């Protein structure tokens, strides 16, 4: 009898919204289509200057599970925190307003937590590439199924830095004092890192999120790139501090090599034509975060490991030459095998880089790269 009258757990969903008048309808429709129907959502109109707030209000009039908070623009982290303060529930989720959910997303995540008792759950993601939805290989690799895990079971999961493919048990979120950094880009990483370090978690191979990468959302304009890079370093700094406080040498090494370095290639591509202050900030961050352990040990592709070594050595002209050459390649960089040792290394034209001035480890290829 108790089971007959039991109710599904309540999920609170925070939907921060700014400048999404073309996308918010699709986002909310995907929420309404969830097979887990016991949810309430708060749309946080973060000072939008288009019709975002009006569209949100119209949805709130149509469905009593949706409410709207209108606020002055404070950025994504502040909007998420404000929404979390307004929403109720046994569980907590964050949904970006230009993305959509597969119909069973929350049923899969909440159902896993109901069965495991874990603190939060994370699932895989597909993103739009043209008209197709594609699951990135690295996302598929990270989301091999796991239940009731701790970070030592799979430290590379720290590379799953996203807020929106997860559901947290609300009691864990509050007890751990979790919140999103405010006033920074890339605010997801410090909070998701703390979650993985402090909690138990379930990893699902089901796709629970459809990610729309809008034009201009990753590559920042040159005018804002100093601020963008400063924010990137600050969020990496915060995440690394949490990992070091956790106290596991193995987790820290995986994090520094395979997670923290993962997106640096985007910034190495910007070196040609970058202003001097930006170059100095790039190098300062590389030295701060990888000064004790060179980027030659990282999980970056071979050309970008070499670029990282050159950045640390302040060889800007060589980084420019290397990146411009790499941009002309149709596939993997050329490689050559040492006749005496059988070892493989990058083969960079002498007109691009005098490789006699580079240590062998900065050119070395790994077995899976040959």
Automatic annotation (TrEMBL):
Pfam families according to UniProt: Glycos_transf_2 (PF00535)
Top-level EC class: transferase
Instruction: Please state every residue range assigned to the domain named Glycosyltransferase 2-like.
Output: 13-146
Query: Which InterPro entries does its entry note?
Result: Glyco_trans_2-like (IPR001173), Nucleotide-diphossugar_trans (IPR029044)
Supply the alphabetized keyword list. Answer: Glycosyltransferase, Transferase
| EC number(s) given by UniProt | 2.4.-.-
The superkingdom of the source organism is Bacteria
The molecular function terms of the Gene Ontology recorded here are: glycosyltransferase activity
What PANTHER family does the entry give? Answer: GLYCOSYLTRANSFERASE, UDP-GLCNAC:BETAGAL BETA-1,3-N-ACETYLGLUCOSAMINYLTRANSFERASE-LIKE PROTEIN 1
State the protein's name.
Glycosyltransferase family 2 protein
């Amino acid at each position: 009898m108790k089971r007959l009258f039991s109710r599904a757990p309540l999920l609170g969903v925070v939907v921060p919204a700014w400048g999404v008048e073309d996308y918010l309808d699709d986002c909310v429709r995907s929420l309404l289509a969830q097979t887990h129907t016991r949810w309430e959502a708060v749309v946080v109109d973060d000072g939008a200057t288009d019709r975002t707030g009006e569209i949100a209000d119209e949805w709130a009039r149509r469905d009593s599970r949706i409410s709207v908070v209108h606020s002055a623009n404070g950025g994504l982290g502040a909007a998420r925190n404000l929404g979390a303060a307004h929403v109720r529930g046994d569980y907590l989720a964050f949904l970006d307003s230009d993305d959509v959910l597969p119909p069973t997303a929350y049923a899969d995540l909440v159902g896993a937590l109901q069965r495991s008792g874990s603190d939060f759950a994370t699932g895989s993601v597909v993103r739009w590439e043209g008209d197709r939805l594609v699951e990135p290989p690295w996302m598929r690799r990270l989301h091999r199924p796991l239940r009731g895990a701790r970070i030592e079971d799979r430290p590379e999961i720290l590379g799953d830095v996203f807020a929106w493919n997860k559901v947290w048990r609300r009691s864990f979120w509050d007890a751990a004092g979790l919140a999103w950094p405010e006033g920074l880009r890339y605010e997801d990483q410090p909070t998701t890192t703390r979650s993985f370090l402090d909690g138990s978690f379930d990893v699902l191979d089901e796709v629970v999120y459809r990610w729309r990468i809008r034009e201009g959302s990753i590559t920042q304009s040159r005018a804002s790139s100093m601020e963008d890079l400063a924010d990137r370093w600050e969020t990496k700094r915060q995440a690394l501090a949490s990992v070091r406080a956790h106290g596991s040498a193995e987790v820290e090494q995986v994090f520094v090599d395979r997670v923290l370095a993962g997106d640096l290639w985007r910034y190495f591509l910007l070196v040609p034509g970058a202003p001097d202050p930006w170059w100095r900030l790039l190098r300062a961050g590389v030295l701060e975060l990888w000064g004790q352990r060179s980027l030659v040990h990282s999980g970056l592709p071979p050309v970008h490991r070499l670029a990282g070594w050159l950045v640390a050595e302040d060889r800007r002209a060589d980084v420019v030459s290397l990146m411009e050459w790499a941009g002309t390649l149709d596939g993997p960089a050329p490689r050559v095998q040492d006749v005496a040792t059988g070892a493989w290394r990058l083969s960079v034209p002498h007109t691009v880089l005098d490789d006699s001035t580079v240590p062998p480890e900065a050119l070395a290829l790994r077995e899976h790269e040959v």
